[in-house]
Amino acid sequence: MNLKQVSIALYSLYLTNKYGLKFKRAKSNIEKKKLRYEYGNLILSKLNIEVVVSGLEKVDSDGQYLLLSNHRSIIDPCIIEVALKDTNIFGLWVAKKELYYSFFFGLFVRNGGAILLDRSSQKMSKFFNGIKAGLKTGASIFIFPEGTRNKQDTDLAEFKEGTQIIAIKNKLPMLPVYIKTNSNEILHRAINKREKNLRIEVEFGDVIDSGDRTMTLEQAYIKMFT
């Protein structure tokens, strides 16, 4: 790692844990939303990355959704939070066990608003109960249906089974979001090449009814954004 990479890594570690403690003191979803935007904006500003949003007029700013986004880099949650800054939408991120208890992100994820998904567990009742409890507070649910970061050469990895079940069980409309720019490539350019004035484009799609069975969720997502 060069000096620039070390500097950004230390700054990110400091900021992530600082906000993890701030989240613990937050008393409402509104406070947590504000803090998550602040955090995301600080990280992206440090990297000289601007988020450019389109399609937000399709979204009810007070709506409650199952938000679905493609996933290429560790900064994607920050991108989503910044893209939603002009709405009142606050979402609980579905977080895998490794992230929920990680040294780097654990404090932030647990306190910032997340639902643990333990794929090794034989029972999913705790996961779905957590979703129901979160929805009762007015929160949306945010998920990367690819399950993990897409490290392939394709624009989109295969969706994991079960994402649509969350919407069906809770009669929750689905909000597709597409990070059009390869965020991982932009992140590498920001850190390794120290480029400035970088842009990441984010597009909000049409809301999908939870009961729509005309095609699979993955097919609907691909059709919407290609």
Q: What low-confidence regions span 5 or more consecutive residues with pLDDT below 50?
A: none
Query: How many domains, as an integer?
Result: 1
Q: Please write the CATH class name.
A: Alpha Beta
CATH topology: Glycerol-3-phosphate (1)-acyltransferase
> What's the order of the H and E elements?
HHEEHEHHEHEHEHEH
Query: What's the average pLDDT?
Result: 94
Q: How would you classify the helix and strand content by structural class?
A: alpha/beta
Oligomer: single chain
Provide a count of the helices: 9
Shape: globular
Major beta sheet, strand line-up: 1-7-6-2-5-3-4
Number of strands: 7
Share in β-strands: 15-25%
The amount of helix comes to: 40-55%
Give a description of the structure.
With 226 residues, this protein is an alpha/beta fold. The protein has one domain (3-225): Glycerol-3-phosphate (1)-acyltransferase (3-Layer(aba) Sandwich). 44% of the residues lie in helices and 16% in strands. It has a seven-stranded mixed sheet with strand order 1-7-6-2-5-3-4, sandwiched between helices. Helix 1 runs parallel beside helix 5 (106-112). The longest helix is centred in the N-terminal third of the chain and has 23 residues, at 3-25. The termini are far apart.
Task: Annotate the secondary structure layout.
Elements: H1 3-25, H2 29-46, E1 49-54, E2 66-69, H3 76-83, E3 91-96, H4 97-100, H5 106-112, E4 114-117, H6 125-136, E5 140-143, H7 163-170, E6 174-179, H8 183-192, E7 198-204, H9 217-225
Parallel strand pairs: 1-7, 2-5, 2-6, 3-4, 3-5
Antiparallel strand pairs: 6-7
